[in-house]
Amino acid sequence: MPKDGGIGASTKRREDVRFLTGQGNYTDDINIAGQAYVHFLRSDMAHGRINAIDTAAAAAMPGVVRIFTGADFEGIGGLPCGWQVTDRFGEPMQEPAHPVLAQGKVRHVGDPIAAVVAETPEQARDAAEAIVVDITELPAVVDMRAALAEGATKVHDDLKSNLCYDWGFVEDNREAVDAAIKGAHHVTTLELVNNRLVANPMEPRVAVGDYNRATDEHTLYTTSQNPHVIRLLMGAFVLGIPEHKLRVVAPDVGGGFGSKIFHYAEEAFCTFAAKACNRPVKWTASRSEAFITDAHGRDHVTKIELALDEEGNFLALRTETLANMGAYLSTFAPSVPTWLHGTLMAGNYKTPLIYVNVKAVFTNTVPVDAYRGAGRPEATYQLERVIDKAARELGMDPIALRRKNFVTEFPYATPVAVEYDTGDYVATMDKLEEIADIAGFADRWEKSQDDGKLRGLGVNCYIEACGIAPSNLVGQLGARAGLYDAATVRVNATGSISVMVGAHSHGQGHETSFPQVVAEMIGIDPSQVEIVHGDSSKIPFGMGTYGSRSIAVCGSAMVRATEKIINKAKKIAAHLMEASEADIELKDGQFTVAGTDKSVAWGDVTLAAYVPHNYPLEEIEPGLEETAFYDPANFTYPAGAYACEVEVDPETGKVTICSFAAADDFGNIINPMIVDGQVHGGIGQGIGQALLENAVYDENGQLLSGSYMDYAMPRADDVPFYVVDHSCQTPCTHNPLGVKGCGEAGAIGSPPAVVNAVIDALQRAGKDVSHIDMPLTPARVWAAMNG
Amino acid sequence: MPKVSMTVNGKAVSAEAEGRTLLSSYLREGLGLTGTHVGCDTSQCGACVVHVDGKAVKSCTMFAAEAEGAEVTTIEGMAAPDGTLNAIQQAFQDHHGLQCGFCTPGMVMSAAALLEENPTPTEAEVRHYLEGNICRCTGYHNIVKAILAASGQDVSGIAAE
């Protein structure tokens, strides 16, 4: 049993108290004396040429401080892209400029044309309406295939075409894969759409820029998952502010799911305008604005082919994907359909030959970037759907077909360049069959039948690459940043500890789980440990939270820093007890000399470090504060098996989720309660993708589902209680905690389970339906049943 | 600008408000009660739910002036004066019914209104009642569980802790 508050304990979250009492400190809660408000005039057309902007009337409106247009940003850097993909011919991707405010053209609905800074939000909005923009509408490029057609209108006039890159992976496998598919006993082919989603954290984005003319210091308060990434990108590449003059603070952040990783124009604008206006400048997105400015997710169109032999062994896999980049390259957009997607196409299976082709396409839509899972849900969905289809075509049980092809020996080097260190896919599938009561499905199907409902069972596996990532590896793959993380452990004189971490908590509960680790290592109460995050002026240069990396990467840095602390504390303890350092042991907050009854308490040692009267000053420095940077040796590979049961109403096509079970292997676990919660939330989002959510553009590039009236967010009565289990644990072999990360698994693993279940329900009812594209709305399901 | 007066969390308050000022803005900007959150602009998300004269109201859907003279309770008024969480708040912490915390004030206020109307709701009744409150973090599992627990029902049989 885990000890109270240590590793493995479901410690209740300390941050909850402030959130439950209305005392959270979100960015929109920050108001600085004298602040002005900005309202962005945004393009209402998807593609247009700006001929002139007349701000004279608007500038004369009450309360207007200043109006900015693209002209004010000439000579200032555009928003940078953090990842350069090299195409299959060895050429770099096409990389367009991304101005802070539109220059010359608008390229998606929501592209900012001008910004009004005024005394109140209402005055800013009123004045923005008075700006006259002379704009020539251009044909909008929305559909990806049309965008790639010969003679298509170009989103960026200075690029060769709308093709960002044509990526092949592994290019050397291409011919062998083609040959294997050509000669195979059976090939299952599936064309599918991974629907475009909007991340929709409940807190819309906010930015508050502040500038101190006396010290030339800038501060940006922003809704970010990674304040240091923003400081680096915005300071170095956009505004040219040296890091020591730029502080970026991400206080309490109301969810991110990827969409708050990226550096956005509004952050740069508020920082710039605060200096230009010499007063604080605040921007708060409306939800409508969030829909047309937050980076979207997914939006892939894929053809996948799986070749099998007579026994059902996987022989080869080939995929062709069109990936929508939107109008500009968001911060990490190019990496999502490539390195975060192609490298996962082996899944949990020993397919010997794999070739992935991805064409990334510019369109007149909101930029697309990482959303919970980022590339891995797209990989999992197509793979687990095609396996299910293959099983049905071959008359095999879908679970048996999966089991037959499982990777069973580790480490396992896939044909797509990654090496799984540990895993046990048989164990997670066994566990799933148990917790989902797969054996009892037939009885439940009968009962549904009696109720006039079509019941179906969908099962799938998933694997993800988390803990992103080894810096030297991602550097070779095109990342323009390192992906280590950092922690500083500051022990105070009386023994309490502040841990400053590069990871950012915006729902993940780091303030509770991270202290569990430090407390366990030293043997003190977790209440003596606090976590400080989110302020670049307080924390070491870490890369933030995304890709399920916080505990695996930043947690490892924290362990390393704590180890340094313990090593130094042992030296001090040895001095105090006049013993050899080698004989000092630390247990339950007491230093002892092995084989004796001598001991000193943790607090005695920490006090000695800061009041070094009796202290080995000639050997070690006073104080007790250590920093560690941790760069992982490999990704981590959480994996699992998911099952969904649905009922389809044959009259309406409405799908009801009857049950959902998840058996995950996250390696070691710090706080099981928090891990459960992460999986629940991911499943909720995955069910949303599978049944409800869709960012739909019309042919003119207008976002039709641009509010909660139209974009169907999952609500409490759309989902059941989930059954989750993470008792299968194969610890990661290359980080000190043996952890793998759990933040994205639910969102990666759940969509195929839902779709597989609906197809199963329809086929059991004798319907000749082998695929329906997400979201599986009643209209789509009904049409498929009756088509 | 006219002043609007009401009682908020048991205290008489007064602040300037334009005719178009929403109750949510009045609470947040006028009174500095930033626990009430604004997550959308179509009255869908429910992060801004407060109680007005005992009824759950989306405060982004009501003008401040309409609440003139009303008794308003916000999330800041839910815990005891000494800071002790009330039963619903405590259940949310006990059952991990929140993650990022942004929807939480609205969830707690809606849950309180539900349990006032229906002291022992079924799971289905809880889920139905929460249709107007969107959470993006929890998949609702632990929110529903927390509300059932706050109503005094045994939730030990609900999978996963």
UniProtKB/TrEMBL annotation, chain A:
A molecular-function term among this protein's GO annotations: anaerobic carbon-monoxide dehydrogenase activity
Class of enzymatic activity (EC top level): oxidoreductase
Keywords for this protein: Molybdenum, Oxidoreductase
Record domain Aldehyde oxidase/xanthine dehydrogenase a/b hammerhead: where: 21-139
Its EC number(s): 1.2.7.4
Keyword Oxidoreductase: yes
Domain of life of the organism encoding this protein: Bacteria
Name of protein: Carbon monoxide dehydrogenase large chain
Organism of provenance: Pseudoruegeria aquimaris
From TrEMBL, chain B:
SUPFAM superfamilies in UniProt: 2Fe-2S ferredoxin-like, CO dehydrogenase ISP C-domain like
Alphabetically ordered keywords of this record: 2Fe-2S, Iron, Iron-sulfur, Metal-binding, Oxidoreductase
Presence of keyword tRNA processing: no
Gene3D superfamilies documented for this protein: 3.10.20.30, [2Fe-2S]-binding domain
GO molecular function: 2 iron, 2 sulfur cluster binding; anaerobic carbon-monoxide dehydrogenase activity; metal ion binding
Superkingdom classification of source: Bacteria
Main EC class the enzyme belongs to: oxidoreductase
InterPro entries: 2Fe-2S-bd, 2Fe-2S-bd_dom_sf, 2Fe-2S_ferredoxin-like_sf, 2Fe-2S_ferredoxin-type, Beta-grasp_dom_sf, Diverse_Oxidoreductases
Domain 2Fe-2S ferredoxin-type as annotated: residue spans: 2-78
CDD domains referenced in this protein's UniProt entry, alphabetically: fer2
Pfam families, alphabetized: Fer2, Fer2_2
EC numbers on record: 1.2.7.4
Protein name: Carbon monoxide dehydrogenase small chain
Organism per entry: Pseudoruegeria aquimaris
